[in-house]
Every structure is written in C-alpha cells, then in structure tokens.
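Hi, here's the filled form for the chain we discussed.

Project: internal
Contact: R.S.
Residues: 261
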Amino acid sequence: MAVGGGCRPAGRCCLHPATAPRVFRPHASLRPPFRRRRAMLTVHHLDNSRSQRVLWLLEELGVPHEIRKYRRDPKTLLAPPELRAIHPLGKSPVIEDDGQVIAESGAIIEYLVDRYDTGRLAPPRGTPERLRFNYWLHYAEGSAMPPLLLKLVAARIATAPMPFFARPVARQIAGKLQAAFVDPQLALHLGYANDALARTGWFVGEAFSAADIQMSFPMEAAMARSGLAERLPHVAAFVERIRQRPAYRRALERGGPYTLG
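And the returned structure, exactly as it came back:
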C-alpha cells in the first residue's frame, strides 16, 4: 500500500531528482562526426600508356590505391571498349577517388598534388616556382607530345600493311611530313627541354617535383624515337636519374613495363 503518495509501487526505484544518476549525453557539437569509409583510390591503367606516370606519382605520395588493368587491342593498339564504361572517351589514364572520375594526366596530377601532397612535390601557390610548375605540367601534353606522336604515326604509315602499289606513295607522304614538319618541331622542343634541364637537372627549381613526373613520358619517348638522343645529354641524364627513383621502380613493378619505340 502506498504511503504518502510520494513513493512508487514496490519494486520501482524512488530517488529524489537531486540524487538520481545522470546519463551524460554530449551536445551534438561535441559528438564525433560519422565518417563513412572512403573507397580506395582506383587507377584505370592501360598497358604501355601514359597512365604509368599516375602510378609513379601515387607511389611518391604514398597514397594507397588499387590498379585495374586494361590491355590494348593487338592489331589496332587502341584501348578496349570496357574503358568507356568508366569515361566516355575510353582513354587512360582515368582515376576514381571519393566519387570523382578524373581523366587527363595533367588534371589528375594537379588533383593528386592538391589533395595529397604535403609540399614536397609542388612549390607553394602564388610563387614564381608554382607558375613554372604549372607551365611544365601543361607543356608536356600541349607542346611536347604532339610532334612525338606524329613521329610515331608517320613511322607506322610507312610500315603498315597495304597494297604494293600504294606503299611507295605512303612512304613518300610520311617522309615529307617528317622532313617538313615533324623533325624540325622535335628538334625545337627537345632542344628547349634540354636547355631547361641544363640549369639544375629538374624542370622546376632545385628539387624533383610532380612536373618532372609529367614530363617523364615525353622525355623517355624522345630518347626512344626522336633520333636526336645524342644531341640531348641533359634529357638523357634526366631519364637515367628518374629511373633510379625507388617509387618509379615500384610503379613499374605494379603497372608493368612499357615500350616507347
């Protein structure tokens, strides 16, 4: 029987509010935010391609990543159609990171440096060195690669299977293209790069940077297919130097070797 109406039925605790235990509920601002687990960065890597630079940069940065490999068509040397499921152009390199799909090696390198670098592989923003860094990052694909690609295309035209009566004409056209445009452009651009490397051995300032990674492919291609290797001592030294870097070698082990001839 309840007495005085202030107590609760038997078996129920009756504590004065002043003595009741309190449950601590942190204010929303003090609670740690829920963090969903980020998916690992993925590199869609085409064999024998410029995506090797992206693997190398990730090794230099120490960023965990997975590699999905694709093989070229042995006849056309084009990327397989599966890559179009990742990016409409079906080309490589392409990366996926935190829900973003990013293509073009220059854009990828800028993104990775901005997100993951701690100041080791790019100069500070707003400095003259950063301007030079951005210049070489875009020069690699915008100026250095076109004559190298034309050199490769002209060589393949001259040796491609075709009716015997068309072969002399094709070879003549390819030869004139190289003599009139490709070779002079190669000499101009590779001489320019060779002079830039003569100052410090790197493209930006005194230290290795991500711009050197971006410039690595055209410089390696120049040594393999330009026919000017003997006239480019600083480019040759640069290529030898980057190939000795542990991160470069790890990227080759994971991505596989590539040929440039």
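Let me know if anything looks off before we file it.
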